[in-house]
Amino acid sequence: MRMTRYFLPTLREDQASAEIISHKLLLRGGFIRKVASGIYNFLPIGFRALKKIENIVRAEMDRAGALEILMPMVQPAELWMETGRWQAYGKELLRFKDRKEHDFCLGPTHEEVITDLVRKEVRSYRDLPLILYQIAPKFRDEIRPRFGLMRAREFIMKDAYSFDADEEGLEKSYQLMYETYERIFKNCGLKFRAVEAHTGAIGGDVSHEFMVLAETGEDTLAICSACGYASNVELTPAILGEKYQGEPKKPLEKVYTPGVRSAKDVADYLGLPVSKITKTLIYIVEEKEPVAVVLRGDHEVNEVKLEKILSFRAFRMAREDEILKLIGAHPGFLGPKGLKMKVIADKALEGYPNFVIGANEDEYHYLNANLGETFVPDLIADVRKACPGDLCPRCGAPLDFTKGIEVGHIFKLGTKYSSVMKATFLDKDGKEKPFIMGCYGIGVSRVLSATVEQNHDENGIIFPWQIAPFHIALISLDKTLKEEAEKIYHKLQSHYEVLFDDRDERPGVKFKDMDLVGIPLQVILGKSYKEKGEIEIKIRKNGKRAYTKLDQLEETIEKIKEELLFERI
Amino acid sequence: MRMTRYFLPTLREDQASAEIISHKLLLRGGFIRKVASGIYNFLPIGFRALKKIENIVRAEMDRAGALEILMPMVQPAELWMETGRWQAYGKELLRFKDRKEHDFCLGPTHEEVITDLVRKEVRSYRDLPLILYQIAPKFRDEIRPRFGLMRAREFIMKDAYSFDADEEGLEKSYQLMYETYERIFKNCGLKFRAVEAHTGAIGGDVSHEFMVLAETGEDTLAICSACGYASNVELTPAILGEKYQGEPKKPLEKVYTPGVRSAKDVADYLGLPVSKITKTLIYIVEEKEPVAVVLRGDHEVNEVKLEKILSFRAFRMAREDEILKLIGAHPGFLGPKGLKMKVIADKALEGYPNFVIGANEDEYHYLNANLGETFVPDLIADVRKACPGDLCPRCGAPLDFTKGIEVGHIFKLGTKYSSVMKATFLDKDGKEKPFIMGCYGIGVSRVLSATVEQNHDENGIIFPWQIAPFHIALISLDKTLKEEAEKIYHKLQSHYEVLFDDRDERPGVKFKDMDLVGIPLQVILGKSYKEKGEIEIKIRKNGKRAYTKLDQLEETIEKIKEELLFERI
User: Fold this and answer.
1) Which residues form the signal peptide (chains A, B) (predicted)?
2) Which of A65, B326, B334, B353 has its CA 20 to 30 A from that of A418?
């Protein structure tokens, strides 16, 4: 592709609206443009990168025997009413009426549509297993769309659905998709990790997320290098590594703690470590029942765990005015002693002697609180996020923590959808049984963002070879080399995808643009070519340069490509 | 692909809901399934065929230098308000609010979005010409979705938009797209015709439709075999071939015509040809002004022409109760004489002596009416559809008429969108000028329907090789040949897309399914292979059979493929 015939509107400055690096660089590099909040145009170079990812996904799904279909974006309410999600799904499900006043929604996911299709068309166990998938736009009316493609409202997703006759079949399909996902992200040239995950709104019992590793990731992963255990910290059982000292219990003592509210402030004021302070948080369950959660000051509540403890009832944090009314003290001075509501104590408080709690009276705390004595909680449970110092729930070795971006999520659904939708088949024994289902998603457009988050430097994007929109940026720095450049362009085009900067621009502008859009190799015709007949090859990833004669150009490129693909550089 | 691992739910019976052959066969063949009115799932074989068409479209668009992008399906109202189409576009524009109560619509077309993109990103004539395109789902909330993919609400479209600095540039882009479309439909293996067309809701001055020729087409094409003129009959100027005889004018005579209402009934009753009878139709313009149109009984009103005559004001046919109130007679007895409203007479009535008109009194007509004497119309204009007997408006030779299905439509938009949206660039002379635009659509999913309408027989679909979901259906009729069949399957797969019917089914079932889904060649292992080592090849298109030894199988297939591609068979 010639730059003079391409549409690549790069920008010099970051856009004020872009908060994270991938959003900034995809805008600056001319990959995407905003149409409305969370809604984007993919420009030619962005579309090319997207297609690369899509093609890798498609190739591996096909290889796994999954069959590609296409389902509509506009879905009738009737199907969603059957599963109860018409009511249960939040406002992310964009609902509307057509001209005949029938209810429809924009598909955020397609369990209902696919289950309806399969229940009508598949009759017998002989037709199973069946895995169907599509790569298509989806719409989720996010309350706060942001970060560009990372949390967009309209986005491209690969969603697959498996149908099996029994649990054993589901296990096989799930394992097949797990391995397929590993191949997909490997083939994209990404560093990633599969982790055990929370099933959320899709449901089912077991799920794994595929995380692209990046410091800027929103998710925290708990990883055990000893046994290979890995989970999203939302799900990780918190097992304290610390052994509490057998310190004798001291008598409870009320102390004056004026104006110190946060656990850290209290700790500093009292001259104690933060771990010795507890915090008490008040939640309102189903808009009526207050519940208190007590945990160490250096720990954090895990709301996914709390949701399970609360039997999946809706809950939220209490507002300050509600707390004042309920307890008569401000947040910061709350404690479990004498609290007239259900109290959940985090497991890490078990056997922990002499900790600090709020006195439920402004400006006061108690020293030397002890679980079971100072207060008796209604429940002692694991309600916190695992954190450094905690142990692997599988093998007991210390856990590592790292950040990731969720790009894929696979679920064992079981009969969650098939039983309510009466999607059944005739099994070997002649009995009607509900399909055992799984579902498997990849945020295709999100992979593009995650790629950039993982692979960039101060000059721009650094695409892995596998999903780079072009492999080679051909840059000629001298008008007198025009003819030579044309020849090399034609030569390279037969083996590589080449973006040829044939503009009348200063070298600085050309290099800046090519660095920004992240093409793996820059083939440069400049001084060294004119003087010594040597073509310069710059490797975007590490800035290293190689020089080669024209007749060895392709050989040299092949060598560098190999190094890149096998990550030796 | 093995049938036992494929998802191809064929049906024995036509679905009651399917009115036209393509809808019937695409349902029966397991290509599509309905999700809601005008909304479909593409099943694996349907998706494959769709992809074939999409890939041909993409290859030719890329070859023309058009750049692929992807725009969202959900579009903000603001852009549509700028062009006035938020108000002007009918209910086919599905409008809705998001969770923040902002107005959006589902894109039925993308002129607004693309013009907004280009006005923000393209500054200079140096960046022109620019042709951008996408292949993506669209939504039009049709009042009466029907005929399966032919008039669906959600469908796949290729839409392209050209931006030029001047009219000359537009002419070039338009010509380029015209030729690209010719190549696309040729490469799809379809018989088609480009015709001059009505610009409709998209607007602009010049447009051409690309019509797949099929007896079942909804559109009528007027074609001149002498000079090559071709137009949609909506647009064809009607030039009467008939020369009226210089018959002396006779005196007007009121006759009793009890109970005869249609032109044909009146003609039969009076013993005159239908052409001698006129009909008078009453339209209501903008819900207030009645307008009468008078034309020959054997001619039909062309509402596209009428719309132009009425300066594009909204109009509809009057209801019977309105006619009774306005005129005091029932439809069937109406005539232009003494009518207290604007009367438009069709041009074909000029110089036509002694025709019959209704008397505006139930059960009565007049004989021997004459234009200019019996009544003086407010306007004499070409308001009818051209029909057999009419002459070519370009060369005067008699026109031929044929039926077609619109699959593509290209428009010269000029500055229709760019001027209202203030989409300008800096021209060579340093002046701001609006982009000169064109737009170019192909109904990708509709092409699939049109292909079936054009290519089928009583047994099912007959796909052109180029867009067939599979090239070869491999059918083994004997379990003892299983190993042989497997070998041939592997052999053929390296060159062709093969659907291998490896099911335990009766031969009849296998042949029926493969005929139905329209795969061009059936490679059959049966009696002749067992007895003489000869593989049978059946050509789906004509039912002819060839026999070949295994070692010449591919050679034979190649020969037949050539014959098919060059339409020698």
Assistant:
1) none
2) A65
